[in-house]
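We examine the record.

___
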Amino acid sequence: MDKKIIGILITSIIVIASFSGCQEETKKEPAEKTNTELAMDFLYEIKSGDLNEAYTYFSSIMTSQFSMNQFRNTWKTITDTYGDFETIEDSEETVIDGLDVVFVNCTFSNDYYIIFKLVFDELKEISGFWTEKIEPISSYSAPDYADVNSFTEKEITIGEEPWKLPGTISIPNGEGPFASVILVHGSGPSDRDESVGVNKPFKDIAWGLATKNIIVLRYDKRTKVYPEETAVLTNFTLEEEIIEDVYAAIDYLKTEDNVNQSQIFVLGHSLGAMAAPQIAVNNQDISGIIMLGAAARGLEDLIYNQTVYLSELDGVIDETEQATIDLINESIEKIKTLNISEGELVLGVYKSYWEYLNNYLPVRTAEALTIPMMIVQGLRDYQVSYEYDYQVWNETFFDNSDVFLKTYESLNHLFIAGSGTPTNTEYLDEGHVAEEVIVDISNFIAGET
């Protein structure tokens, strides 16, 4: 089995390559050290700043698809976002699906810990290296607008084997029936709270809306719960990544007695917002869709613009950043022409994913809907553009009384307030989804916008 990059390029915050391990065909003798010792040596080389030496720990199959420039740029992204690599706390060695795996827990100076997952082949070379978990050292605090005594939460499971997903449903106190909302994540593997550092925008939304007598269902994304399993699907599309699980969530809500079956809404953020029209077009149970930061362009164009924007923030595009931009440009050419070979990964996914998105036109799909829509945009959002995305939605639906359109002056892509030049590092500062957004969503669901 060849080594493959797994997971979709994470466009919500940062670009981190992920890898699935395999055996290298060579006659080299295995190293004498244990896998844990080698993992420690590898990370100490990185901590000391010697990325060239650390790179020698990778197998030849891995280096053939992950260049030194990509490795250096990936690590720079991590440290730019989470701070300096400070300590190695502990490790665990195990076997998963026949693969030798070492987990290492490390701390970073911006008060984050990252658990790295390293896969070793039979020659004790690293054939897989990615971030298993990133969490803030500080803890989440509830927004002022959430009254935690006005609702209860319970753990649930949606879907069927082999894709069962854990989730949480927030239920207002009282008899109901209540309107309900399903929260749909953006790009990349995400938990039910859509956690970004200490910030948990989906938890903010769930608690804010539950305080206003709306049931909210949120769940861990399929690519979060089943990263290895989804990575090897060569027919993987938006259907498998997002849409099928939204339908499973709707099926679950149909079993809840206190759900008003005529008021089931879907709220999508980022990629989830872009997918919302397609989710609704084939499901008659959906009463309306709410789109937060919805792109009107192709995902590949967003990735390019985000990468260039972040590279230019310091006023200089260095050699490593330019190499990444050039790689994305080459990938975009392949995506737009679908000149992608069988089994080839482009920006982390197979041809099927890009073929699906090439054929999906979210604005045109939304035009075919007859249900209410809410489309909103933060003006400090550098990931989904006011000019190239929101303006398209606005020009299409400005005279449609069933569509609520609004922009928020100080809000970023997470719909959290900020100031100054928008950056990806501001997502690590504690904040909450603005109360104004919660009020607008609540009013839209109540038909009061």
Observations:
- The first strand starts at residue 4 and ends at 5.
- The chain is about 35% helix and 25% strand.
